[in-house]
Each structure stands twice: as C-alpha cells, then as structure tokens.
Design goal:
Helix content: 40-55%
Number of strands: 3
CATH architecture of the largest domain: 3-Layer(aba) Sandwich
CATH superfamily of the largest domain: Phosphoglycerate kinase, N-terminal domain
CATH class of the largest domain: Alpha Beta
Largest sheet: 3 strands, parallel
Number of domains: 2
Oligomer: single chain
Distance between the termini: 46 Å
Shape: globular
Low-confidence stretches: none
Number of helices: 5
Length: 129
C-alpha cells in the first residue's frame, strides 16, 4: 500500500486487496508521509495550525484533544462548527445539533482557552432560516 490519501478507505483497491493477500505492507511513500506527519506533530515548527472539519464532533474528540495539546491555532469547519456556535450561545438557525455534543464542544473550548490555543470558527457561514 502506497496511497496515503486513501489508505483509510475500505475500497476494493485498498482494504479488499489486503484482505486476500497473504502478505501486505506499507510502501515507501506511505512510510515517508507517516514519518513526515509524525515529525510535524512531535516536533512542530511554530506557529502550528490545524484545520478540522466534518460533521461529527463526537468522533473527533481524541484528535481535537491531541491538537489542543500541540497546536497554537485550530480552525474548525464544516457542520462541526454549529456545535461550537451553540456552546458559545450563538444563533444557529435550523442547523442540526446534537444537544449532548454541545457540552462536549464547550469542554473543548475551555481546554483550548486554558492552553492558550486559538479556536477559529468561521463567521461567514450561511445558515438555513
């Protein structure tokens, strides 16, 4: 496997092939990418920023907590931001938000503040009315 950008996907060309092979391994490019990212996170050049998106905050908690420990700035995007808007008591219109996640978003905001990490939430989002 040498396709870092798709290695996490369960496509027939990635996971499917690996399932039927007797022996499989990471390729040189995959290992190079892994080493680069490990170095960037273990000994980052400052300032370090991360961009995180998607809809579900609950599946990103370990990653966000780890990034709060390592980053100077975290930019949140996609549908994830509405949970954070709600935690900050912003108006979110009809955007879908799981109420139990709002508490979690608030906890992450407070962790970031305690570490001096800047959370950037885009303010130019068009919301459903």
């Amino acid at each position: 496997m040498d396709a870092y950008g798709t290695a996490h996907r369960t496509h027939s060309s990635t996971a499917g092939v690996a399932d039927i092979m007797e022996l499989s391994a990471a390729g040189y490019l995959l290992d190079k990418e892994r080493q680069y990212l490990k170095g960037a996170l273990d000994s980052p050049t400052r300032p370090l920023a991360a961009i995180v998106g998607r809809a579900k905050v609950s599946t990103k908690v370990p990653e966000l907590e780890s990034l709060i420990e390592k980053c100077d700035t975290i930019l949140l995007g996609a549908a994830m931001i509405f949970k954070f808007y709600k935690a900050l008591e912003y108006e979110i219109g009809k955007s879908m938000v799981e109420e139990n996640i709002v508490e979690l978003a608030d906890k992450l905001i407070k962790q970031a503040e305690a570490k001096g990490v800047i959370f950037i939430l885009p303010s130019d989002v068009v919301m459903d009315d």
